[in-house]
UniProtKB/TrEMBL annotation:
Protein name: Thiol-disulfide oxidoreductase
InterPro entries: DCC1-like, DCC_oxidoreductase
GO molecular function: protein-disulfide reductase activity
Pfam families in alphabetical order: DCC1-like
Gene this chain is encoded by: yuxK
Length: 129
């Protein structure tokens, strides 16, 4: 099953999260695309993800997951104890997404914003669409 993570390419936290995921996904199950890229925009249109979505997006099979559900499903696919983060899926989605939205609204203030795109290393480049 194809798993694509669409992330905010301008967000420092989001870019660091991609690096974090890559380190804990040695089999390369997750592929990545910036939401601002042509590929990312195309995938978002294909899965009917609204442009104003302020969330990471996980495409898994034929479905798009947003906000906390996307983050928890990504945790489930990682090596190590991170997969146990998926237990938080038991928390009602409205509560999880409320916390996610607070973090999302403040991420630029807390972690900053990139002015230029980060170039992946050659071995990581094959993980990006």
């Amino acid at each position: 099953m194809e798993r694509i993570i669409l992330f905010d390419g301008e967000c420092n936290f989001c870019n660091q999260s991609v690096q974090f995921i890559i380190k804990r996904d040695p089999e390369g199950r997750f592929k990545f695309a910036s939401q601002q890229s042509e590929v990312g925009e195309s995938i978002m249109r294909e899965y009917d993800v609204p442009n104003e979505v302020d969330s990471l997006v996980l495409i898994e099979g034929s479905k798009a997951y947003l906000q906390s559900t996307a983050a928890l499903r990504i945790c489930k696919g990682l090596k190590g104890f991170w997969k146990f983060g998926f237990v938080f899926i038991l928390v009602p989605r409205q509560i999880r997404d409320w916390a996610y939205k607070i973090f999302s609204k403040n991420r630029y203030d807390w972690f900053g914003k990139q002015e230029t795109c980060q170039l992946p290393s050659p071995e990581m480049k094959k993980r990006f669409l």
